[in-house]
Amino acid sequence: xxxxxxxxxxxxxxxxxxxxxxxxxxxxxxxxxxxxxxxxxxxxxxxxxxxxxxxxxxxxxxxxxxxxxxxxxxxxxxxxxxxxxxxxxxxxxxxxxxxxxxxxxxxxxxxxxxxxxxxxxxxxxxxxxxxxxxxxxxxxxxxxxxxxxxxxxxxxxx
Length: 158
Ligand code: MG
What we know:
about 160 residues
């Protein structure tokens, strides 16, 4: 039996911050603002994984006002979410992620991102779908003021 969960995240972009996606640093003049590393891909995917398990959301498990989680890398949240799933006899079998930003081009970084996700999720590269889109110049994302991500995770119950 399978279940699915969805996740979404957005962070404002500012100069002087590192742009991190799935723990991979993407060369760019701006990066996300936030208490954490602002890894929108991981935050959206973590919420998708938790959603598939009906396990709440990233903010309830990893509040950024808790020193334990402040500044924690996004991949750590995914690792923790997978452990919570395992406790309920579930595991992630497939993920599909969309990252939306005007710049930079993300596709050249997909191999590195895919392999980072494969490692933390315990999946093969073929089980990880990545997409990059722009916002066609519209809204904050389109003006280059923010980066957003959508994710869906499918889990199997064993
Ligand atoms: Mg976030």
